[in-house]
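Quick log. Single chain, no ligands specified.
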Amino acid sequence: MGYGFIEGCVDSHASALAACRGGADRLELCANLSIGGTTPSPALFQLVRRDCAVPVNVLIRPRFGDFLYDPAELEEMERCVRQFRDLGANGVVLGALTPDGRLDQGAMARLAEAAGDMEITLHRAFDMTRDPLETLETAIALGCRTILTSGQEKDALAGAKTLGALRQKAAGRVAIMAGCGVRAGNIRDIHDQTGVHVFHTSGRRGPVESGMVYRKAAVSMGLPSLPEYELWRTDEAEFRACAEAVHALAPLSQT
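-> predicted structure:
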């Protein structure tokens, strides 16, 4: 991993291609980013891996909502991890919590065993834990290579203080990857305040209008708050601006 490193968060083949053309160093492949992301289909993974010449990590999240999983959900997650390992994924992105807001070490160890030699990223379940520094040490002990976090705030810029503390405490034992609200215009500020140089973004600029001409306005296929005829995709120009900002970073003195 180079000094300035950017991961594209994508949930479609079109977004994956846009992120790769824009300079992504790695992809996190998901489905349903509008609800925070869920596990993508094996078919989508195979298409993206065929057409994108960067490593692809796969989100393992069986549903929308919290990160407290029942036995059947954990079994589903374990099977997905093994399936994507067999399909050639570079890594998996996952997380499971206990009811009291700590990392579920038993569940995480089970998923890590299924992952074998794949990279493991602890996703933003990290941001829902009660003690970020405690969770950092637990994640390292479990073999996580990367922690994706906003610093337990609404976005990475707001969480800069915690991001900086995590990076210092990690001391190179795990990569702290800043995510949520990362834009070309704030990457330098986040880096300068935290020393973090690994970033995660979808590179989305705004909704893309659906190509549908006939529209049934009275019927909704999902959450009423989500318009049926707007698509959210990675914008190649926006992602390229983010990638150029990240790749231009240089190590801060005395960090």
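The beta strands are 5-10, 26-29, 56-59, 91-94, 119-122, 146-149, 175-179, 198-201, 204-209, 230-234.
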